[in-house]
Amino acid sequence: RNTPGIMTAPGLLFDMDGVLIDSTPFPRRALIEFCRRKGLELSEEMLRTRVFGRPNQDWIPDLFPGISDEEASRFADEKEAYYREIYADDIEPWTGLLPFLERAREAELPMTIGTSAPPENVTFVVEKLGLGSFLSKSVDATRVTEGKPHPQAYLLCAEELGLPPEQSIVFEDSLVGVQDGVAAGCPTIGISAEPK
pTM for the full model? Predict the structure, then answer.
């Protein structure tokens, strides 16, 4: 039922890491070990200012100047494969995620994943957690060329669901991700995990 001023049948756009899964500290471990294997010791400052929040195609050439595009792509594949390897036995959904997705499906709300991670990581998460019946659509690094807080990812997600941004609710766990959702014109919900 359409009620003036009330958004009906919204789409749900989920960031992946930190929203569907609590992947911390596995990306950090993968980054540090990958760079160590390549002869580079990452400091906390380098992680914070030159790596975190940036897609592989940005931080790899920055930390390994002069690297060819082909080699940078190989580096990215190697780092992501190592991440999946070390995370495979520990991956689990956030508490409450599956009941939430079930209720959204019962309400016939369209849903998608929006991430700058490679498609292999999306497949890894969806298959490991059995999310395929909820989240069969995704926008990943093969389509996202602009990193957060650029709104590209969530604009593409809304387009994927055939909805305008204002009818597409973004779920994010980082400040830059929230900025991304807002910049796309989407109602945006920031999620903060309780300390363990």
Answer: 0.85
